[in-house]
């Protein structure tokens, strides 16, 4: 797309995210993202991309737009369940990968996680530690994705959206690691709009967002609000720079919820920055 016709962009932590302050045009965004994927893969001299597929909205949209950009033969899906809860979503992911016509493999990570836990020092037990387990699983999944990428001269195509990035709702060097993030500039509600343009099955769009670590766990439980509340708050706080009190009044939203989201954005800034080095000022 010609730079003169691109939407206004904002930056987060010094990185241009191409963020729109207005609702997206799904058709235009579809073309823009596909061009971005093609250009990134071509510039890297890569043969395609690897996508970790969970059966959820973000990974399905990422895989679909990658197929549109590169063709099904250049997109490889990895499906990596790690517990009984994940097995159900894995079956959905397999069906979605088949519908997209891409090559994929399913590998159950529970034995790997168990071995990892068995060799970790006793002081770092994973027993009854869902946060530690969730982070470990995310990093094991990303290790598998980079194994596949290295073996096939592909790039790891991340699935994280802007809502998750701004709230630090990701694992460093886990789902936060990738060679490109096609959805990294889109809020979750924007991803849903894009899904409709890509004809993503309705059952995927309607799935309650979840990290899939614990039975019954939902993003809204962890974040304190659903994305229909989160995204407008983040747009006003991050994109427009408004304070929590003003946002709460403008959106007629619980001030405690707004304050919690704004505080979470601030406290997770380290997840959106390069590791600090002596003599280099932090950008956020």
Quick take:
This protein has twelve helices and six strands. It has 284 residues and is an alpha/beta fold. The strands form two sheets. A four-stranded parallel β-sheet has the order 5-4-3-6, with helices on both faces. A two-stranded antiparallel sheet has the order 1-2.
Task: Please mark out the parts with pLDDT under 50 across 5 or more consecutive residues, or reply none.
Answer: 1-20
- How would you sum up the major sheet? 4 strands, parallel
Order of strands, main sheet, comes to 5-4-3-6
CATH fold-level label of the largest domain: Rossmann fold
End-to-end Cα distance, whole Å, is 29 Å
By CATH, the superfamily of the largest domain comes out as: HUPs
Overall number of domains = 2
Number of strands: 6
Residue share in helix: 40-55%
Strand content: 5-15%
Number of helices: 12
Rg from C-alpha positions?
A: 19 Å
Principal-axes geometry comes out as globular
* Mean pLDDT level: 88
Q: Please identify the top-level CATH class of the largest domain.
A: Alpha Beta
CATH architectural type of the largest domain: 3-Layer(aba) Sandwich
Taken in chain order, the helices and strands follow as EEHEHEHEHHEHHHHHHH
Structural class: alpha/beta
């Amino acid at each position: 797309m010609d730079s003169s016709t691109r939407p206004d962009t904002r930056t987060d932590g010094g990185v241009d995210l191409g963020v729109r302050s207005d609702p997206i045009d799904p058709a235009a965004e579809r073309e823009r993202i596909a061009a971005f994927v093609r250009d990134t893969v071509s510039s890297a001299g890569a043969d395609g991309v690897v996508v970790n597929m969970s059966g959820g909205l973000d990974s399905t949209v990422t895989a679909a737009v990658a197929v549109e950009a590169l063709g099904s033969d250049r997109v490889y899906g990895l499906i990596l369940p790690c517990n009984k809860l994940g097995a159900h979503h894995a079956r959905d992911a397999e069906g979605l990968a088949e519908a997209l016509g891409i090559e994929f493999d399913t590998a159950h990570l529970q034995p790997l996680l168990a071995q990892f836990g068995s060799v970790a020092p006793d002081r770092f037990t994973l027993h009854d530690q869902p946060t530690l387990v969730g982070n470990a699983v995310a990093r094991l999944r990303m290790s598998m994705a980079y194994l596949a990428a290295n073996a096939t001269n592909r790039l790891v195509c991340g699935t994280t959206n802007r809502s998750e990035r701004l709230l630090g709702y990701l694992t460093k060097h886990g789902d936060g690691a990738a060679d490109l993030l096609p959805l990294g500039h889109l809020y979750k509600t924007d991803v849903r709009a894009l899904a409709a343009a890509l004809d993503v099955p309705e059952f995927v769009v309607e799935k309650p967002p979840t990290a899939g670590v614990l039975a019954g766990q939902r993003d809204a439980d962890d974040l304190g609000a659903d994305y229909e509340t989160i995204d407008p708050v983040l747009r006003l706080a991050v994109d427009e720079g408004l304070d929590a009190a003003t946002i709460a009044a403008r959106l007629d939203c619980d001030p405690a919820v707004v304050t919690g989201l704004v505080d979470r954005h601030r406290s997770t800034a380290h997840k959106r920055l390069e590791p600090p080095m002596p003599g280099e000022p932090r950008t956020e």
